[in-house]
Amino acid sequence: MTSAPKAVVWVDVISSAQQQAKRPSLQQELQAYLDVGYDGVFESGRMDVPLKLASFIQCMKCEVDFIDQGSSTSVSAPMPVGMNSGDGSVSITAKNSDIQLNIYSLCDDEEDIEEIHADGEGDGDDSAAPVVAGIACNLPHRQLDGLWENLYYDHSTKSKLLDYAATAMQFARAGISDKVVSCNRLVLLHGPPGTGKTTFCKALAQKLSIRLRSFYKRSRFLEVNSHSLFSKWFSESGKLVQKLFEKIKDEIEDDKELFYVVLIDEVESVASSRSHGGSDPQDAVRAGNAVLTQLDRLKRYPNVLILTTSNLTHMIDSAFSSRVDLTMYIGPPNLEARYEIIRSQIQELIDRRMLNRQTGPTTNRQSILPFKRLKQRIRAADAHATATNTMEASSVAAACATTSSLPLPVEAIDDPDVNLGLKIQHVASVCECVGGRVMRRLPIRCFSMFHARTHGIGTMEMSVDEYLDLLLLAINEEKREEEEARRQQQQEIGSEIPCSNHSSCVHENENDASAGTSTGTGARAGAPYALPHHSTSSSNGSAERSQVGPTSKQVDPMDEEMTSAR
């Protein structure tokens, strides 16, 4: 008999310092409310604020993590998990979960965002403007609020990175000798452009500043502008790197209660392979050596975490790669992530009255099913069809389980919420090989097409069905434009240029026996919800790689990832 998964419920409460000062017992009252007074089901997302505490709380958020007691691994549940017992899910309540409460205030002053200069405000040259080597701010910050909740990756990617970073900081606080256990607290996220690596790092810094509040009273975040270290005084890049890290050490050296996160975006700019020196190889070598030396020195401080990103891992020096504790590949979003991106966009547009709340009898924010709940609904429909020998419903449910597109009419399943979810799922399948950055800008393109049809922007509202139809057209236009741009580049340089997300074009076949998961490359223009014209088998999403370095064979990291997955 397998034991039921244990749930850890993280409740994050935003309250200003003034509000907390007016209610010193806010922590105890909220804890008592969650442990005893709350009789609902915990679901990841926003929570209703208790009426008697409404004037002291700005926002309450809930995130549910499962701990599989059989494997002792935690799995984050970004989707709502408390559902009706009839669909086979687990209802998370105060009785069967461990509640962790965090109350914090957001920094929102523009003055709090500070430019960090690496050249001593123009030392030695009064006429020269100082080099802005980075932007720093205190955490948690209002500008980063909501980033974590709106990142959609493979179900374990976020929890894996968060758990690792928190564990690395725990080892540092415990004083574990680095001569026995190597821990540089250095993380590298790599993958194609537009997959959200930089945003992921910022969201992680914000989340850690909240989760680790019991250990650190203050948190600070620095985003290093790697390119600026080479844009000026080009022959002295090593000195600029050294001055930047000295400023970091000045902040953390005498403040053990400060949690400091450093983000080095496009780290290959300052840690490039010394065998590829570029136009000034000596300067590149000096800069690379300075980075390695400063990283080794920062390791002595237990309150520092360094996050890095790269699109070009083959250009990173092997000495830097060997210091990285965790290397994680962030690829294009898989089917579930694409579905959730589209669903969140529709919800936002409905909330802002840009989309009609009705498409069919009853469609509102709550009836747009999350991907996991959609699969559960289809399982329930299939089970009901089997029990009642309803061949028509059973055949449709079987189609849902084997393909991302339904044979029309989808109304054969008598559930408008499921029908809408299947339409969104089909659009998500057509978005295969489309990065998250591109998907985020598609709504504007859809509305511009809608305004062109209606001869003006006076009418802003359209139905969800109309929006999904236009979204299919917008996706196909994006793909055609990308293909045309690649052809033009190919003609200019006389060689083949692969798609920016080339490996993800190996079409995924996400074999889940509930919601339709086989995907295709796109739908015919003007034929929404048509069957895809072909598909092949592969897995997609985020995965972890153990080693990155320029000394290995030069293989596209995404192709290598797909080969490993297969």
Descriptive report:
There is one protein chain. The chain is of the alpha/beta class and 566 residues long. It folds into three domains: 6-104; 126-329, 3-Layer(aba) Sandwich (Rossmann fold); 336-505, no CATH class. It has helices at 17-22, 26-37, 157-174, 197-211, 228-231, 237-252, 281-298, 318-321, 335-351, 371-388, 391-402, 416-430, 436-454, 464-493, 557-565; strands at 6-14, 45-46, 59-68, 73-77, 97-104, 114-117, 132-139, 186-190, 218-224, 258-264, 304-310, 326-329, 543-545. A hairpin with a 4-residue loop joins strand 3 and strand 4 (73-77). Helix 6 (237-252) runs parallel beside helix 7 (281-298) and helix 12 packs parallel to helix 14 (464-493). The two termini are 32 Å apart. The relative contact order is 0.10.
Produce the secondary structure layout:
Elements: E1 6-14, H1 17-22, H2 26-37, E2 45-46, E3 59-68, E4 73-77, E5 97-104, E6 114-117, E7 132-139, H3 157-174, E8 186-190, H4 197-211, E9 218-224, H5 228-231, H6 237-252, E10 258-264, H7 281-298, E11 304-310, H8 318-321, E12 326-329, H9 335-351, H10 371-388, H11 391-402, H12 416-430, H13 436-454, H14 464-493, E13 543-545, H15 557-565
Parallel strand pairs: 1-5, 8-11, 8-12, 9-10, 10-11
Antiparallel strand pairs: 1-3, 2-3, 3-4, 6-7, 7-9, 12-13
Helix pairs in contact: 3-4, 6-7, 9-12, 9-13, 10-11, 10-12, 12-14, 13-14
* CATH architecture descriptor text of the largest domain: 3-Layer(aba) Sandwich
The biggest beta sheet reads:
8 strands, mixed
Discrete helix count: 15
CATH-derived topology of the largest domain: Rossmann fold
Order of helices and strands: EHHEEEEEEHEHEHHEHEHEHHHHHHEH
Strand content: 5-15%
What is the CATH class of the largest domain? Alpha Beta
Counting copies of identical and different chains, the oligomeric state is single chain
Low-confidence stretches: 68-88, 120-124, 359-363, 401-412, 502-566
Number of strands: 13
Structural class by helix and strand composition = alpha/beta
Span from first to last CA? 32 Å
Helix content: 25-40%
Radius of gyration: 25 Å
Write out the strand line-up for the largest beta sheet, numbering strands in chain order: 6-7-9-10-11-8-12-13
**Mean residue pLDDT:** 77
CATH superfamily assignment of the largest domain?
A: P-loop containing nucleotide triphosphate hydrolases
Number of domains: 3
Silhouette: globular
